[in-house]
Input
Amino acid sequence: MMRGVMASEWLKIRRKGIWLLIALGPLGVVGLQALNFFLRYDYLTKRYADDLWGAVIGNVHQLSVPTLLMGIAIVASMIAGIEHQTNAWKQTLALPVSKWCVFACKFTLLCTLLVCACTLLAAGTVVLGIALGYGTDIPLVTLLVKSYLPFLAAMPFAALQTWLSITIKNQAIPLTTGVLFSVLCLFGTAVGDWVPLKWLYLENQWNEPFYSAGPGLLLGLVIYVIGLIHFIRKDVS
Amino acid sequence: MWRFFRSELLKLRKSPIWLLVFVSPALSTIFGLGMRIAPEMEEMAWGMTYTMMAAPHGLLFLPLLTGVLSAFVCRYEHVGGGWKQMLALPVSRGTVYVVKFVWVIGLLLLTQCLLLAGLLAVGTVKGYSAAVPWDILVSSLVGGWVACMPLAALQLAVSVAWSSFAAPMAVSAIFTLPNILLVNSEKYGPWYPWAQPMIAMLSGAQQAEPGVLGVPPETLFIVILGSFIAFFLSGFVYFQRKMI
Output
């Protein structure tokens, strides 16, 4: 059942510009950091002389956090908006598939797209670092950690945005919460370790990125299950 | 035109749009309340609180909110197939477009007023002894509002063109997120239309300590007016010719 629904979901997002956004997000972040590094090449190269690759990866990561949050909100809204726009929720749910399956597939779709974006981000970072002439001594572990763990830490937001986008017809509301999160995350490093927005920066008092990603995954699962139950019991209008 | 303006009000009256207008001022007010000001800085308390509140508001919130509001005023037409119905009424397309634009900037003005109200509330709660610097506050808030107009013009054009709500927001986000890097750049920031709300809102308040931004007002004027004319005209002409 899941496979059929998933295939239909992939079909629905064709020619909607979603892939364009998934590519544009990471490439935009890398492009902006490229501008930043090339324009201030001498200054930044001197300032970060002892860890050039770390600086590139770190700077890309910093900028990718608000972009990730905004991207999650927009893509989640696009995925759910297909049914809202054409008033097709009844139609979709009248098919011989269970409601949880539809919800799960939308969420899986969002996650898959996000993983693609993370991969592009990692690849773009490597290209940027090499283009800057920082050598090929790439710290692979740091690169993978900073590219993929924010995605796990962002699970609560992905689950929340999917839930809001699917259950609220007026897409202005989920998009505004997305805006709210991306503004708030700029202050993310200044708050306590228990605030989910800080997890995205992978910073905590133990200096262990997995301690940020783990709770993110867990809280994401909790919100996902709550959203799923709410969606299953909700009437479709 | 006035009647048409009122018919838009009817559409928006019972919608959550009023909630959206409150979000940013409310958040900024919480920031303002949470901020601590040393006793020796009491003289500058208003300016400092304002800067603290206006920075997140102008950097991302205001440009992104412009996108949400523009998409919102087109939502009823897109969802219910209302464009046909509306344009069948004895109103010109030009009027429709201008009225929608006026609504967007009207709601933005309301947001700015609410921000001011929030600031005054913070000041009253904390009992600032200094006089309220009305001229700086009003000129900064109005400046931020004016700087949003080109953005609103572009967003309205995109919102009219695409029926999806998220697509115009994507455009808004694509252009607004670079702000995070660009406002730090004295060389490039002033030329970027999306950075203008932030620059306009903060440069006035920082005149007390000059040289922080050091941007000649002429540059801002050219960028804001130039991009406004370009965006508004292209959207206007596009809507005139669009097949509904």
About this structure: The longest helix of chain A spans residues 52-85. Chain A has one domain: 2-233. The CA atoms of residues 112 and 158 of chain A lie 11 Å apart. Chain A has a mean pLDDT of 89.
